[in-house]
Fold each of these.
Amino acid sequence: MSRDRLADASASVDENRRQVLKGLGLAAFGCPFAGAAAQAATAPARHMTDAPVANVASAEDRVPFFGKHQAGITTPRPANGMIAAFDVIAETPDDLEALLKLITNRIAFLTEGGTLPELDPRLPPADSGIVGPVVKPDALTITVSLGSSLFDGREWLKPLKPRHLSRMKKFPNDALDAALCHGDITIQICANTQDTTIHALRDIIKNTSRHLTLKWKQEGNVPVILPPLGGVAESARNYLGFRDGTANPDSGDEAVMERVVWVGAGRGEPEWAVGGAYQAVRIIRNFVERWDRTPLKEQERIFGRTKMGGAPLDKPEAGEFATPDYAADPEGKLTPLDSHIRLANDRTPAAAENTILRRPFNYSNGVTKSGQLDQGLLFICYQGDLEKGFITVQRRLDGEPLEEYIKPIGGGYFYTLPGVRDASDYLGSTLIAAVRKAP
Amino acid sequence: MTIKHLFGATALSFFLTTSAFAESATLDLVEPIAEYKIYVSEKLEKLVEDTTAFTAAVKAGDVAKAKALFAPTRLSYEAIEPIAELFSDLDVAIDSRADDYEKAEADPEFPGFHRIEYGLWEKNSTAELGPVADKLLADVTELSKRINDLTFPPEKVVGGAAVLMEEVAATKISGEEDRYSHTDLWDFRGNFDGAYKIVELVRPLIEKKEGAFLKTVDANFAKVDTILAKYKEGDGYVTYEKLTEDDRKVLSTAVNTLAEDLSTLRGKLGLD
Amino acid sequence: MSNPGSATRPSRLMPLAVAGAAALAVAGGTLFYYAAKTAKGPEKGAVYTVTVNAKGCEPNTLTVPAGRTTFEIVNASDRTLEWEILDGVMVVEERENIAPGFRSSLTAKLNPGTFEIACGLLSNPRGTLTVTPSASSEAEKTKPPLKAFIGPLSEYRVYIGLQSSALVKDTQKLADAIKAGDLNGARLAYVAARLPYKRIESVSSRIADLENRIDPVAAYFEKREDDPGFAGFHRIEYGLYSLNSTDGLAPFADALVADVTALKARLKEMKLVPEDLATSAARQARRLAEDTVPNGDNRYGFTDLADFTANLDGMEKSVSLLYPLIEVAKPDVAKAVKDGFADTRAALVMSGNASYQTVDTATRKKLSAAFTTLAERIETINTAIGME
């Protein structure tokens, strides 16, 4: 396993983690979510985009809700995830504060787990009941982000909008469906099982109906793999059969995350936004029947990786985590210049400026009007600068050969709120304070 | 797929490929590819001519004539779609659908054939279509020029047969393509003709080794022909709404089988 | 690829190769090999001397191993001559315009087979050249895949098809004007009909039998203009410009229409290989530089400048189809070739539409030099893209 460390400016290194994992073998996977603080000293968390490992997830897995940042961003992906986008009914800062406090309370309960209250049976039950009388944490994370329209529609919020937050514009290959785009707020829900994510969604809808109307949602999952032989974790595959997330920055390295993901002071963002991040969501349909009828070599040229191993094309035997040496292949003889991974990240120090943290899920919805599978990628990424991050990377990908096989149909840009520090705090408290402080 | 990619792919296949297809077999493709370019050039000439008449009718406010010319004009475009699509900017300008725009039909960006189709059938009017018609003619003319200047990449030509079937399978069999005029059967005719032309041109190269394969392909094309023939009316076809559910299923199966089979054509000819 | 290197002509390969080597030192081993090979200068192989006298070649039968071979042709006759290696009626290599008493050398890369050699006057008997298989010709069979050339060859085929159709159409117009007795119209039609012919001359000139019927100059016939064999374009030109009449030209025009129609059919059957795209253009450039530009082909109408421009268009078409490949393999070669075309075109434009009679020797020399440079640059292409 050779994984070249990029120049210091780059934020794409996860070497130590892999090495340690290899050394520890399966031991490292034991209950990856629980007691993160205590465990961090001895065994590292898993790489965020590693495929979830079969038989190690547990309903007792608990991801701490309180912290400087929200959970569900640098947290390893569990097997299931979804994005639900809502429009917000809130005419005054008080309305918005009430909504945010309500959501905070629900998330605090759902992610911690506990016994549901029993109500008078002549009333509707307090809960959908789909996970039974005792809610287990099941690695649940719920991550709340705000859309541009929330700010734009409210004079008292407008001045506080994060500087890069905008309504997602159409890229050339997009066929955006208005019914799958934008929204005032998104809630990302991730957990080990689908029952838990759906339970959480229904809980939130039930409890926030005064303030939220559901606009669209997309569920997805990550293929669970058997425990890896030799202990080297693998990145999960997308529905095109290629590994996704191999070149992600190390979500376990706080310094890297500060640089890539989190908005700190000094980025020119409003003060309330410190500790948050930009979220870009894209629902990208894959034309899987057509893809399956495309020659393997062409598939590999389009991605720039081998399909089975995931190795870069210039080092086909080197394994998934080898760093391609594009400098030695300036004409694209080995890795075509317009291959997906080369366009997205040409591995120059300049490209390190545009690093994003990807956290995608595969989706499989049903059948199109033409009788083909409606499958694709629920692409989610996080970054401290939306313009330098997702937007720049996507512009580089515009016109890529892969476009023949994919069609982005929905999504939007959102600002993920800073974390909730403790039980006395709530999601968006700094924003509400800033609104109140404004003249 | 952009032109930028084509040249990349051409150069790449030259340097990467080590599998040795016989020299003669490979250079035997020169003639079919050259013949295909001539076929495409003729279709383009017809497309420009027909689009000139169609857009003139639109600009003259003659709704009935414009409606009559819509489907026949598209026929040439549909036959050469795999090559036309190589210029994605023009493909979008000429043949994109309302779904490609966030505000669908109401989107001011919505251009080309289907924007005019929408006006003619849904509004029964040529109002506001003048500039759209001018742009369409300019785009079709530009497409013709660009294709004539293009060196056809062999893998795109051979792969084009499958691409045409993929288009039908993924987005046309549902009747979404010409959703206002329901002239989809005309488009199918163009798509099938274009795909069959490619098969015909490479047939001599694979006939000996791939007799069984060609037999299956021919049988599926024949199946399509039989069904389309049932719906013929004058020089063209009846509205797509008249296609029976049973015939739609047979068409769909034939198209998917053709897409599966024709996707192997490139490999059979040593073009990955 | 023919050999650029007679001793009198300064080779441009050297500076090119040096620049190439510097650029490629970073790019890796395979390409550096080519640079190194070029830096030594093209290999000449064994040298055979052939003497051409008034009656034919001496020796008249040659056997050589496959690969690069150099022929020294000695002109012992009293006429300027051309010497050709023919595969059936196809010209494999040729050297033109060898003055009496002079010698010229030609290096050819020959594949195994039996060839004929042309020996001076068209009426002289042809010699036989037998090429036997060699180690290098066996190794040649494993050369790089040809897939990348299918697109360019197809495109060139379309071009040849379009131009040969135009040639038939325009020659028919010439015949019509002649039959109508329209001298002025026939002269215009003559110039027009030669353009498509010249655009494809780099390949059509390889079909020796038709070439000798369509475009021979009087000098290649024993009795020159009075020779009964003198036919084709220049016979018509002779009538239109020297005799100032269409009289008696109709049979020649009809024969020409038949010949260009046959040419169109033969070109459709012709199978080009990747090397041809560059080598036929290079050969054409050399022919222009060494013979046509210094002497002029249209000795009665002096319409040569239009011919040259059409020649250049056709050469540029075939070579430009290789640009995407050359640019990837050796950008400096691509640039040199493009510059070569631009310079040659500029030299032609400077001469305008003048009657070639009025173009002085100095200007012809400059034009000739431009075509020589262009030929040398085009000759580096096949090596650059790994075809040799």
Amino acid sequence: MRFYASLVYLFLYFPIAVIVFFSFNAGKSATQMMGFSVGWYGHALHNPFVTEALRTSFIVALSSASIASVFGTMAALALQGMKGRVRMLFDALIYVAVMVPGIVIGISTLIALVTLFGWINPVLAALFPAGQAPQLAMGLVSLIGAHALFSMALVIIILRARLAGMDRSLMEASADLYAAPFATFRQITLPLIFPGILAGFLLSFTFSFDDFIIAFFVAGSETTLPIYVFSSIRRGVTPEINAIGTMVLMTSLVLLVIAQVILRRGPRQEAA
Amino acid sequence: MPSSTSSAMNQAPAIAEFRAASKRFGPVLAADEVSLTIRRGEFLTFLGPSGCGKTTALRMLAGFEAPTSGAVYLDGERVNDMPAYRRPVNMVFQHYALFPHLTVAQNIAYGLLQRRPRPDKAEVAAKVARALDMVRLPGFGPRRIWEMSGGQQQRVALARAIVNEPKLLLLDEPLAALDRKLRREMQIELQTLQRQLGITFVLVTHDQEEALSMSDRICIMRGGKIVQTGSPTVLYDEPISRYVADFVGKSNFVDGIFAGHNKVTAHGTTFTGRILCTPAIGSKVTLSIRPEQIELTRDGLEPVQVVNRIFLGEHTEYLVRHDNMGELLVRVSRQAEAAEGPFDPGSEAFVRWAPDAALILDQD
């Protein structure tokens, strides 16, 4: 058993290890080691296309994760207050949203937005003087929206678990001690679910930062880091790509570990 | 102690009142036309098995449940629709419900800090310190909740409630999670605290010993209804039904038919007793005799066979078999046993009891 398990892990992680390994290549080949160097990291970070793509990725990840955290939290709290069938239906729908393949989300978001823009743009054109009407198109905003939509499901799932595990009598105790509903939310509910919100934010950030498929469809002319990597691979693979890949991997890994640690710490978090 | 204060209690004004208050959860009638007056300064206990409606009654006082019909009054004001956070009432929750992200002091100060205008910081700190002293946890303020033992958490929950000087302190099975010795200690402490503060305590419990030892009055509930309300002494000496006699203390029961006057026929024999219910002739009643009211003797009129002897320190419990009444539990004091000598299992003995020690009660 242990042998087979090792094989599975080797199969999963060997390609990643290879990418990390060759990112330290001194030579120009992505398959032939020519000595150790961190030169490609410097190279990547001095490439204006890479830094621009990195900037875009950060903006998208930060914005979509923030939106997803706020709205996801609100949705989870609302779901907590619902009962029976309605809640079960929404819970199921949220799990489905997470399971739908990225390519389906990408294409459907693209079609939905194109259709929507097709309706709105003529209206805008009619409202503004000729030539000055703003044109809605694919770009940063549509990408942020698409990522926020998907990440929201992640946040809801994490928070639903956390809220379900919370002692209901804490809220009653707060009300018993003269705190009106909003005061209870601010002083009790929010501090207790905050680790969940933070973990949801970090997962959303990671998801957005790594995502290629959805971004490929709805980013318009914007270039995120994964899109840059994809397009430069077509011009041949250099260890620069490996270096970028390793950096993305490390960012994601660190954020995921932090998210896990926060979720594990449970009620022992220091708040207030 | 409780009996000496209860006569004064009778004149005390009402602090809370149920007027035919009912609460329905779907098909379940959790409280069924509960009517009760709670007097200022008393220690009242709702006693009954789980599902009898005692917790629902308490939650209607706290404001967590609104009555489906009828009314709840607090200090003369109808509070059916008053939310919990407006009621001058505090509760000690069954599992304490302490806020895990706050320190002990922050937990206790929570209620004070909700007041508007916000009270002075020094004043809050002083009140918190005094409350901690009162529950014998001085200096524990900066501790985290999870660092405290179960008994200590219990005290913090108590301090968090009393620091607000509520008109009513509600206690929902507050001692259920503690071990036996600690529970005994807390019972005494709760009683002392109640005397000191003069706050009205309303306790919910299924533990008869707890109810008997602490309360001025006990309200026995069953199926959402109040069965009997009275001082512990009254409930023990004059229960109206077998249910009450069974719930408050131990007793021997013999089912029979009411034969008029003070007579009951059971298993072909006629017994006399004191009537505490209003049965029709020929209706089913129960004869109840407390174990300590029965005397075990070497000779007499009612022969029994000794089945078992259990030495319990201050007294001894005998299980004896009576031809007509079946097995009886007899409690023999140390002195009585010293005079008569111990009875061996399997030996012959006789029982007797004073005529008014046998109570004629409703059978249900």
